[in-house]
Write a structure and sequence with these properties.
By secondary structure, the protein is mainly α. The chain has one domain (1-48). The protein is 96% helix and 0% strand.
Length: 48
């Protein structure tokens, strides 16, 4: 009973960790895409 409870807790923490990781990945992806967009604009300005 005790081991089942601890494994259940571990599973729940893993689920919350994965959802946090997904959110952080989305944030990182948004940041990178906006950063590359700014860089491409700068390159366009320099070449233009």
């Amino acid at each position: 009973m005790e081991s089942q409870n601890s494994s259940n807790r571990f599973f729940q923490s893993k689920i919350s960790l994965s959802s946090n990781r997904k959110e952080s990945l989305i944030l990182i992806f948004n940041f990178c895409s906006s950063f590359s967009l700014m860089n491409s604009f700068q390159i366009f300005k320099i070449e233009g």
